[in-house]
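Quick one:
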Amino acid sequence: MKKNEHGFGNKDASFQAAGSVAGLERLVDSFYDRMENDERFAPIFAMHPDNNAMTRDKLARFLSGWLGGPKRFQEKYGAIGIPRVHGHLPISETERDQWLTCMTEAVAEQPYTPEFKRYLMEQLAVPAEAVRRRCEAATPKPAVQLWVDADACPVVIKEILFRAATRTGIALTLVANQPLATPPARNITSVQVPSGFDIADDEIVKRCNPGDLVITSDIPLAAEVIEKDGHALSPRGELFTKENIRGRLNMRDFLDTMRASGVDASGGPAPFSQRDKQLFANQLDQFLTRHYKKEG
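Output:
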C-alpha cells in the first residue's frame, strides 16, 4: 500500500486505524450485510459462494495482512492472489463500481477518521481495478462482424467487402429488402427483410453487437450503431464516430428542412469516384487490422 502524509501505509498504521482485527470484522460484516440486503448489489452478491460466513472470514483476514497487520489469511487459507482467484467471474466496470460503492457505504459507517476513510477507498480501488482487468482479459469476446446496409451500397464496395471477408474469414452479412447474390462462402450471408421505411436499418441495429462495423450512408442508422458501441463507415470511406455523428445528424436535418421548403442546398451527392473507393478500402483495412483477429 502507498504511504501518505498521515502515516497510513507505514508498517501497521493502516491496520490500527481500521480498528485492528475487531474493527476489520465490523467493517466486513457491515459490507456483506449491505450487499446481501440491498438490491443494488444483488448482481455481485450472487457471485459469492453459499458459505457466507467463510466469505466474511476470508475478507477480514485478507484485509488484516493487506493493511500491514498480521497475515491472518495466509495463516488459515494459504497464499492468495486477488485478481487470479476472481479471474473466472464476469466482472466489468459495472460490477467493480458496485463493489466499491458497497464498500464506500460500509466504510462510512465505521468510526474511522475522514482521512483514513478516504485513504482506504483510494487503496481499495487499486485491487478492484486489477480484478476487473483480469476478468475482462479472461472473458471470451464475440468476434466482430461486418454488416452492410446493402440496398444503397455500390457494387464496387460490396466487391471489396467480399474480398476482405474471403481473405480474413470475418462474418459479413448484407441486409436488404430484395434478394442478393453473395459468394459461396460460409461466412458471407444475406438477409432479406420486407420492404418498408427503416426496416432494414432496424434489422441491422437489432443484430449488430458492440464492436461490429456497419457499412451505411444512412446517418440516423450510423448514430444508432454508435449508440450501441459499434462502428459505422460510409461507402465513401467516411468513418462515423461519437465525436462527429452529432454534427452529421444536424447537417442532415438542416438539409432535409431546406429541401422540404423547396431549396436543394446540397446540390445532390457527387458521383462515386475512384478516390471514394480507395478511401473506403483503406478504412476497412485499418478497421480489420485493429479490431479483427483471424481465427485459427
